[in-house]
Amino acid sequence: MEAFPADDPTYNAWGSCTTSQSTGNSCVYVSLKQRIPAYGKYSFSIEQSIVEYKALGRILKSSNINWNEAAKLVDPGYEQKMPAPIVDALLKMALFATQMLTSPNYSGPAKELLVARYYVNECAFATTELAKAIEDQDKEKSLGLWNFGMDSWNSYLSIVNRAISPKVGDKFEMVS
Known about the structure:
By secondary structure, the chain is mainly α. It is 58% helix and 0% strand. α1 packs antiparallel against α2 and α1 runs antiparallel to α5.
């Protein structure tokens, strides 16, 4: 029993208790009963949006850009249409982070959650501006905004991937 790795999330779903000025002497953890349903509810949408964001990058990096196809991938879905998966995932990303990073033992939002929400906002900004640049068929601006969005996506994913243990599900693949 002494060799039991208490801080390894593979074996201990709660990790170790933390002691800090902001949290006091409580054990700040998010239970598997909270993380598993959140993963089941939101992971497919987030994974699909990652696939489409990568496809958008391939389109924008090509020598002959298909602007219509690129516009479909960032369509906000006005006029009673469904938004594209990249746009649809933005709210789901914020909800997923909230469920994965909010501890029932600590009443305030965790710093990780606030940072994850910041990166969701950055992804939303990049997507909105990217849709405008694609509409104007501005290749340089579109590619720059896609790279900015890629950085925001990867920053978000690096935060939420830490909360995904093997018991919860597979970690998300980074955007490249």
